[in-house]
């Protein structure tokens, strides 16, 4: 049975992405076959498709770090035929074939069941970005951060992780300040629950100092670099910053001052290798806490053939919110 997939191949050292027709026997080994309803486009996917990052090393590759759909063949008792499932992370779309295909065979240990009340479409508007945002909120709450302690900053707020973090934090009662390079995103960010929108050019008028005026009780940083250094310099006493991204830079030129003089904590958050129990709990929390109207407002829907164009755009910082891929 033929089906469509976006396939990456290399030609003369350059990555080429093209929609191809494949047969089921071309799929990798696995104990579950999924009819994919939706996937999504993440920054890492953009790097893989364009070849701008060394994300994929073995070719041919079907990229796409996320997928959601229905099990149509199964050797796994936990996922009988007809089950609806989500897959994010586990190096799928990097080392293993991923979600940009109408059918995909995978390892059942990578899956979580679709939570009650969540559709596969909503699950992929969330995707890795939503899972990551939820894990950030949980890390901050587990560290004892509460809304009455003061404002929370979200950097890269108009991106996928950032916009969903704004919504989730606002739903939990936090006073969210959204930091973005995009002035045109202000109205949408306020609709998601941001109390204030800060333009990056204003925020970064001066290079970060070792310590600055105390402002933030907590934060979610998706960009790294000097932006994260400045956020750390502006922390309140015992503040916590969850770090999840490097869109600006993987480098962090800071000092120990926020940590030893203000007791600040920098909390790393990874969504790729999260154990099953934590992963499932995060998805169930998303199904319970995420405002459905916010999901629709941050999503653009595309097809497989449009992925190369959108992949280029996301690596250039031209995408707002989430990009949903309908299979």
UniProtKB/TrEMBL annotation:
Alphabetized InterPro entries for the sequence: Acrylyl-CoA_reductase_AcuI, ADH-like_C, ADH-like_N, ER, GroES-like_sf, NAD(P)-bd_dom_sf, Zn-ADH-like_protein
Molecular function terms from GO: acryloyl-CoA reductase (NADPH) activity
Enoyl reductase (ER) domain location: 17-325
Pfam families, alphabetized: ADH_N, ADH_zinc_N
Database matches in SMART domains: PKS_ER (SM00829)
Matching NCBIfam families: oxido_YhdH (TIGR02823)
Protein name in the entry: Acrylyl-CoA reductase (NADPH)
């Amino acid at each position: 049975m033929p089906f469509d997939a976006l396939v990456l191949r290399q030609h003369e050292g350059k990555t080429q992405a093209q929609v191809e027709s494949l047969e089921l026997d071309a799929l990798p080994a696995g104990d579950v076959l999924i009819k994919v309803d939706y996937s999504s486009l993440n920054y890492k996917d953009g790097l893989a498709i364009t070849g701008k990052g060394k994300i994929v090393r073995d070719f041919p590759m079907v990229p796409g770090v996320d997928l959601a759909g229905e099990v149509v063949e199964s050797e796994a008792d936990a996922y009988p035929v007809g089950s609806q499932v989500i897959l994010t992370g586990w190096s799928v779309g990097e080392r293993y074939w991923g979600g940009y295909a109408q059918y995909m065979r995978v390892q059942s240990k990578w899956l979580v069941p679709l939570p009650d009340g969540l559709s596969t479409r909503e699950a992929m508007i969330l995707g890795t970005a939503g899972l990551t945002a939820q894990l950030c909120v949980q890390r901050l709450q587990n560290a004892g951060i509460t809304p009455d302690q003061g404002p929370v900053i979200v950097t890269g707020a108009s991106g996928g992780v950032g916009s969903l973090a704004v919504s989730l934090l606002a739903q939990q009662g936090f006073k969210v300040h959204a930091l973005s390079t995009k002035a045109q995103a202000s109205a949408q960010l306020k609709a998601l629950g941001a109390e204030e929108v800060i333009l990056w050019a204003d925020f970064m008028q001066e290079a970060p100092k070792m310590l600055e005026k105390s402002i933030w009780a907590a934060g979610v940083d998706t960009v790294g670099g000097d932006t994260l250094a400045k956020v750390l310099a502006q922390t309140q006493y015992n503040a916590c910053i969850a770090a999840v991204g490097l869109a600006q830079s993987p480098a962090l030129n800071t000092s120990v001052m926020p940590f030893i003089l203000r007791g600040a904590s920098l909390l790393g958050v990874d969504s790729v290798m999260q154990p099953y129990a934590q992963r499932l709990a995060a998805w169930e929390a998303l199904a319970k806490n995420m405002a459905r109207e916010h999901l629709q407002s941050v999503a653009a829907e595309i097809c497989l053939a449009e992925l190369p164009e959108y992949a280029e755009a996301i690596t250039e910082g031209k995408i707002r919110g989430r990009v949903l891929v309908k299979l």
